[in-house]
């Protein structure tokens, strides 16, 4: 009986020794450290169209057990802009044991511009209209088409059942947190009254300009429909009807408040009055960049 007990103790000691040796081996051989990320520069300058491979240019990853794991590098996330055109990205690297190491890098976009609004028609709508964003689109250098992301400011309200002119602000934000606002005037009209007024057609209804490129508002007038006649622009710059009658620049009242030296959004207003005293109006939204 005593021999059995001694033998059992011996077996237990051997088992504990083997288990201890195994645990020590596991501890010595187990990989607890992730890869080391190395960058040749803490920032990278790229275009807005750059892919992840350009954002990761000059970045490598080395693991103590697996060696070169640069192929595992990925852009895990991108921050909002720190300032316009500059943001941070988080880079991650993995080893074969799924250990992760992360690092931060600054990205500078060499050609970045804020989202750009466009309008293919004036902001004039019949009473009880359902959508005052018809014809308004937005393109962004980072995200592409942001038209569906355009919001109407809650600061102003429009009574679509009552004709009138209403101030409004459209806003949009891209994935980098760049928010652009467009203050405009929205006109709600009675269909019968509007149909009797002269109609002025422009080549564009929203333009971007600057101090180095002021515009001549008359150049945007393409057509006038008045008293049953349609006047279209000729090579001389005047508008002419099929019967040869002319509308010249001095016949259209143009209110141009644009200060090309002061960034902001302005509205150039065009008006023409027919023989019966009915006045047609249209606006050209002009954004002056800084």
Q: Would you give an account of this structure?
A:
With 290 residues, this protein is mostly beta strands. Helix content is 13%, strand content 42%. The chain has a 5-stranded antiparallel β-sheet, with no helix packed on it. The N and C termini lie far apart (98 Å). The mean pLDDT is 91.
Blueprint (SSEs and pairs):
Layout: H1 2-29, E1 36-39, E2 43-46, H2 52-55, E3 59-63, E4 67-68, E5 74-78, E6 86-94, E7 100-109, E8 116-119, E9 124-126, E10 136-140, E11 144-145, E12 151-152, E13 164-173, E14 179-189, H3 191-196, E15 199-202, E16 206-209, E17 221-226, E18 229-233, E19 239-240, E20 246-247, E21 253-255, E22 264-273, E23 279-288
Parallel strand pairs: 2-7, 9-14, 16-23
Antiparallel strand pairs: 1-3, 3-4, 5-6, 6-7, 8-10, 10-11, 12-13, 13-14, 15-17, 17-18, 18-19, 19-20, 21-22, 22-23
